Amino acid sequence: MAKEFIVETSARHAHVTQETLEVLFGAGYQLTVKKALSQPGQFASGEKITVVGEKSETKMSILGPCRSANQVEISATDARSLGIKAPVRESGDIAGSGSCKLVGPAGEVELKEGVIVAKRHIHMTPEDAKELGVENGQIVKVLVDSNAGRKLVFDDTVVRVSEKYALAMHIDTDEANAALCGPDQKGTIVG
């Protein structure tokens, strides 16, 4: 039997620079850890911001730690609702992506780019990659069987390999809803 791995639903969230964080929350502000995430060193913070698009706005959490570039990750449904043209991209590939305004309790930041629909992907260590017979950047198909009558194969899934990762697949809320994914959802590479 092929090795199974956890399939996690990545809800809308933002990554911000320290500079942006301080504009939004005040000089010297630091993110607070609300909950550790599956990827080592990553966490959901207690801080929320408002993301404003052309049609509407929504609140979302900031994930930490701070990064070298601002990035907002939303689903395609969120993008339509907010009125933001957000392309499907790998994390970090923000050149020419969607724009929005970030609003915090102390200030606002206009992002000329940085809003994406995150491309589905699997984080794994080099050891996991060897065991699964895949390599960094490879595109694979992943079978997700939620046992809710919605078995689904996610094609065009990017493999991301690093010593800093833990084995987990990330999909957005639209994708999770399409497969009726629940907690402790598992997936298997099938091609």
User: Based on DSSP secondary structure assignment, what is the total number of beta strands?
Assistant: 14
What share of residues are in beta strands?
35-45%
Please trace the helix and strand order, writing H or E for each element: EEHEEEEHEEEEHEEEHE
Shape: globular
Q: Which structural class do the helices and strands define?
A: mainly beta
Summarize the amount of helix as a percent range.
10-25%
Radius of gyration: 17 Å
Order of adjacent strands in the largest pleated sheet: 1-13-10-12-11-14
In the predicted model, the low-confidence regions spanning at least 5 consecutive residues are: none
Describe this entry's structure for a reader.
15% of the residues lie in helices and 42% in strands. Strands 1-13-10-12-11-14 form a six-stranded mixed β-barrel. The chain is globular. By secondary structure, it is mostly beta strands. The longest helix has 8 residues, at 18-25. The model has no long low-confidence stretch (mean pLDDT 96). It has helices at residues 18-25, 76-82, 126-132, 173-178, and strands spanning 4-9, 13-15, 33-36, 43-52, 57-64, 71-73, 88-89, 98-103, 108-118, 121-124, 139-144, 152-161, 168-171, 186-189. Strand 3 (33-36) and strand 4 form a beta hairpin.
